[in-house]
Design a protein that fits this description.
The protein has 250 residues and is of the alpha/beta class. It has one domain: Aminopeptidase (3-Layer(aba) Sandwich). The protein is 35% helix and 10% strand. It is built from 11 helices and 6 strands. Helix 1 (31-46) packs parallel to helix 11 (237-243). The longest helix has 25 residues, at 76-100.
């Protein structure tokens, strides 16, 4: 399941620009296009399609990765759009889990403007927590704060929390092996305390197993611009990644 909350460019005049609580309104450029590429390559490789939910409204009008008060700023139309976006995620999750149970996974897709050109993977662990040792990150209190805590309990290889975050088989390490720098990963295990690293937001906290009512694992994927989503030629990160994988994905 893939959601894209900040890639929209529709800005109807009947929805006022968000002003409440000092909002962030920058668009995550080309993230909808990237999600569409992911969708198409999954279909080519597996004859299956992920569930893709994206918000077409510009972030000046709606932020679908905030609580409804901050995201819609009291406007009734934006309020309805926020509810529909999250309802689609809830519906997709139920469909997936009924068929695949603990194999379900959720990506909340974003784009960042940090100067360090690497993909930031947010598992809801803050930068200072990722400074900790693997032994500490494997303690129950840090697993309970993670958006992949259910994967820690249910992975065939019995990998630890720290190994899933930044070991050789971690998602970030898989990206690194295909020449897409990522953090956390085996080569870049800690983002740094002053890096502006994005650890995950509202969607990751509420639509993954960090929410005690859910079982699905997930991650916020903050894509850098250069060589990932800057144009159609180089904006095919997942295209390259998935074409290099086995066809037995679904």
């Amino acid at each position: 399941m893939i959601s894209v909350p900040h890639g929209g460019n529709i800005a109807p005049s009947f929805i006022p620009d968000r002003k409440c609580n000092n909002p962030t309104t920058v668009t995550d450029a080309n993230t909808i296009d990237l999600a569409m590429k992911m969708d198409s390559i999954f279909k080519v490789k597996t004859d299956c399609s992920p569930h893709v939910i994206y918000c077409r409204l510009r972030r000046t009008k709606l932020d679908a990765n905030r609580n409804i008060s901050d995201g819609a700023c009291g406007n009734s139309v934006a309020f309805t759009a926020w509810q529909e976006f999250h309802h689609f995620i809830d519906t997709a999750r139920l469909v997936i889990q009924q068929k695949y149970a603990n194999k379900a996974f959720y990506f909340d897709l974003h784009g960042h403007g940090n100067p360090n050109q690497r993909i930031e993977l947010g598992y809801l662990l803050r930068a200072n927590e990722l400074e900790l040792s693997d032994e500490t990150l494997n303690q129950s209190q840090y697993i309970a704060s993670s958006s992949i805590q259910n994967l820690v309990k249910n992975n065939f290889s019995k990998l630890s929390h720290a190994q899933l975050l930044r070991g050789q088989h971690a998602f970030g390490s898989m990206l690194e092996k295909r020449f897409y720098p990522a953090v956390p990963s085996q080569n870049d295990p800690r983002p740094g305390l002053t890096s502006g690293y994005f650890s995950g937001g509202y969607n990751t906290a509420n639509h993954t197993c960090y929410n005690p009512n859910l079982d699905i694992n997930g991650v916020q994927v903050e894509c850098n611009f250069s060589n990932v989503r800057d144009n159609e030629k180089t904006g095919s990160l997942l295209q390259k990644l998935l074409l290099s994988q086995s066809s037995n994905i679904c």
